[in-house]
Structure formats: C-alpha cells, structure tokens
Amino acid sequence: MFESLQERLGSILNGLTGRGALSEADVSAALREVRRALLEADVALEVVRSFTDRVRTKAVGAEVLKSIKPGQMVVKIVHDELVEMLGSEGQTIDLNAPAPVVVMMVGLQGSGKTTTSAKIAKRLTERQGKKVLMASLDTRRPAAQEQLRQLGEQTSVATLPIVAGQSPVEIARRAVQAARLGGHDVIILDTAGRTHIDEPLMAEMAEIKRVSNPHEILLVADSLTGQDAVNLAKSFDERVGITGLILTRMDGDGRGGAALSMRAVTGKPVKLLGTGEKMDGLEEFHPKRIADRILGMGDIVSLVEKAAENIDAEKAAAMAKKMQSGKFDLNDLADQLGQMSKMGGMGGIMGMMPGMGKMKDQMAAAGLDDKMFARQIAIIQSMTKAERANPDILKHSRKKRIAAGSGTDAAEINKLLKMHRQMADMMKAMGGKGKGGGMMRGLMGGMAQKMGLGGMMPGGGMPDLSKMDPKQLEALQKQAQAAGLGKGMPGGLPGLPGGGGGFPGLPGGMKLPGLGGPAGGLPGLGKKK
C-alpha cells in the first residue's frame, strides 16, 4: 500500500542523513519534496499543510541544526509527526458496555462492510471467546442478506434469520431483541451502502442508530478511495457520529493517502485494517508500526505476531528435531513454503524486516514471487509419497508425469530439486554442528542464494521463529515492544540468530545502511542500552 510513498520519503530523508550539517534552506528544500510526495500519495491538502508546518517548526530549531546528527534528528521529527497524524496509540473495538454490545457498520457500497463484519465476528469469537450475532440490514443490494448468512456458516457465527419484507429499522429492532434473548455478547449490524452519499441513506442510518443504540459505529472505507475519503468520513461523522474507522484493501497497490488523511481530519481512530478476502485477513492498526513501514524501518513486532498465529509450535519442534538429524525431504519443503505463504509470502515478510523492503524489486527480477511458491507446492503435491520422501528416484519418466499433473515443465521441476538439494545440504551442515538452525531460516537462505543475495542473508538471516514455542514468541514480542522499534532493539533477542550487533542474522554485527538515528531506522540496532 505505502510502497511509492516509502520510496519517495526514503530517498528524500536519506539525502539529509548523508550530510554532516544542515542549513535552514536544506530543511526547507527537503520539506518541499516531502509535501509533494504526500500530495502524490493522495493525502488531503489540509493534512499535508498541517503536517509540513509542524515538522518545519521543529526541524529549523537550534536543537536540530546544532545537533551531532541533524539529518537523523529531522528523520525522527518526521517519524514522530507521522505517528501523531495516524493517532498516537492504537485502539481496538470497545466492548466495555452491557451485553449485547451493538456494533454498527456503515459505509459506501463496495467498501467491504459485509466481509469485514464476518471477519470481525470471527476474530471476536476465536480470540476473545465472545458469542456474536450478525444481522444484515441491507434490503436493497441483491442477495446481500444471503451473503452474510453464508459468511456466518463459513465462520461458524450465528446470523439473524432472514424475514422477507421487513425494513432495515425493523430488522435492527428484531436483531437487538434476538441478541438479548439468545444471550449474545456482541451483535454486528451490517447496514446498506450506496454508490454515493445520499439523504435517504443517512436518514435510514440515523433511524437504525436510534432504535439499536450502538456502542460502536464503524465506518468501513476503501483505502483506494483517494482524497475523496476525507469528504466521505466527514459526511458520515456529521450525520451518524462514527466512533472509529476500518480501512479495507490495505494489501492493494493504492497510494495510502486515505489512511493518512481520514484519521487526521475526523480525529477518529483507525481500529482495523482489511488485508484480503480471506476471513483471517484483518489486522489491528498500530500507528507507530505503520509509520515505521512508511519510513522503511520494518515491523518486527507484527512479523513475530504473524508467526505466533500461523506457526504450529508442536509441528515446528518435530521438524526442527528431524532437521537436526540431517533429514529434509520435499514434504518438509512444502510445509515451509505453505508457512511462508500464510505469513504474507516472501514479499510480506521482507517488507516487515528493517532495510529489506527494497529487496522486493530484486526478488521480482529473479522471479521469486508467491506464484512461484504456488507452482512449487503444486509440483510437490503431484508426486507420490515415495517420491516426496526420496527425490533421488525422480527420473525422466516420473518428471514428465509430475509436469503434466502440476501444469509445469521439467525445467521448473529441476529448479525445485536443485533448491531442495542446496537446502538439504545446508540443513545437514547446520544439524551436524548442533545449531538447530530453523527450517524457515534455511528456506530464506536458499531463496537469497538464488537471488544472489547470499551476502545479505547468509544461512538465511531470517529470525528463527519456526523453532520457538508460543511462550518464547510472546516473550520476544513483549521485548520488541518494550524496546520500541524507533528506539533501538536490544541485541541477543531469544531465537534471533546473530543478535549482539547489527540486524539479527547478519554476520559480524553488520549494520544495514541508513538505519542510524533516533528514528532513522533502528539506532545502535543489536546493542544493549
């Protein structure tokens, strides 16, 4: 989402950090470029003006111009103001009210309200143990109520039975009553949207609000909306009084202006981010982490959280034990490819690692994308059990059959087998030294070698998350949060190879370029305070 903005701001701020001293003219010239970059990213004009004025006021002070590293001080100021623009603290859906807590979803048609309603219901059910009821109040869009009912079945969440001919207000009244009688903790009301804001829509929502008395009114907005997102947020807030924002399609290729503008203009917190059509594609909004991503500082805490959610600790322990004995077959490779896909794929993982965002272009040039992972998994799944356990028996006739079954060709099968052999040798060497190593780390190392980036990620360089049990992951997460991504991460974090100097996993305490300063990345990364 923020790739173009990240690239522009990165080049501007790197130009400042590379200088020994800054004049007021240098700062002003850089801020002109920052202003242009934000406007090109569809951030609202009034938000850009306010942002650059606040940065200028702080950045031209004597404290900055006379500091030891003035360029890095400017980067810190930009980072802090980005966090302030996005909301200093992340907030989640507030359920501190007498049951049933009514959550009302509003927004334009096509913004993703129905899908997001189901995602929230699934999240509350699985993570907080809440009993949730969903009700569709959309009587205008064809099959809207049926869509929510099917999503309810898919997520095992109860939905209000459909009664033909009822108005949205009558459905809302019946839903609240059904939630009370059924002992539900939360009820989610999915209201109708329009292709544009109109008076009947607003009047209907105001009446639904009156009869249901919602504790939360969440505006679901498409993050690709652009500058018009500000007018959208203002209109809904003035008429129904929203309590929070949910931005969908954050995995798209939009410029990210809506995310930066809507919070600043309305003063209402962004509570959740939609990152895909799957029911688990929902993330909490953490302003500091988003600011870190925009400035190319990575997001280790979110990476750890994703690992904790997607890695089966028992299975990972069994695989690590197997690997220590020097065994690594194609079943293990398929498991690791699937695990990486769940964590956002190669690009998603790299995007969360400080200084690694630019490697995405190199990966794309090398043909290393998630489609390649899918093809490789298809190849492995087209093999017999014996072939997966012993790849050495794969001769020409077998490869021909596998290629036909997976829709690939012999060349791709040979590439996969070559990568597997390299990884198996690496695993055997690591296992022989008694290091354990980590399957995921080996996979990342194999990919890095193929990309010609072995110097960047020898042995993988990926935090060895696959070997950790949930308690270790939780401890790592707390430690990273306590350290603060903009304040420097202490070295030697558990399970992160190579801690004690530079980025975890980089040899000899090697520092990544452009990561100095209080907010320029991660100053003194790997050094204890």
Number of structural units classed as domains: 3
- Taken as a percent bin, the fraction of beta residues is 5-15%
Query: Which class of the largest domain in CATH terms?
Result: Alpha Beta
- CA gyration radius, whole angstroms: 25 Å
How far apart lie the N and C ends? Answer: 34 Å
Strand order of the largest sheet: 3-2-4-1-5-6-7-8
Q: For the record, what is the CATH homologous superfamily label of the largest domain?
A: P-loop containing nucleotide triphosphate hydrolases
Strand elements, count:
8
Poorly predicted ranges: 432-440, 447-467, 483-529
Tell me about this structure.
With 529 residues, this protein is an alpha/beta fold. It folds into 3 domains: 3-86, Four Helix Bundle (Hemerythrin (Met), subunit A) (Up-down Bundle), CATH 1.20.120; 101-286, P-loop containing nucleotide triphosphate hydrolases (Rossmann fold, 3-Layer(aba) Sandwich); 300-467, Orthogonal Bundle (434 Repressor (Amino-terminal Domain)), CATH 1.10.260.30. Helix content is 54%, strand content 7%. The chain has 23 helices and 8 strands. The chain has helices at 3-17, 24-40, 45-59, 62-65, 70-86, 113-128, 144-155, 168-182, 199-212, 228-240, 257-266, 287-294, 300-310, 313-324, 330-342, 345-351, 359-365, 370-381, 385-389, 396-406, 410-432, 439-451, 470-483; strands spanning 101-106, 132-136, 158-159, 186-190, 216-222, 244-248, 270-274, 282-284. It has an 8-stranded mixed beta sheet, with helices on both faces. A hairpin with a 7-residue loop joins strand 7 and strand 8. Helix 1 (3-17) packs antiparallel against helix 5 and helix 15 runs antiparallel to helix 18 (370-381). The chain is flat, with a radius of gyration of 25 Å. The two termini are 34 Å apart. Residues 432-440, 447-467 and 483-529 have low confidence and may be disordered.
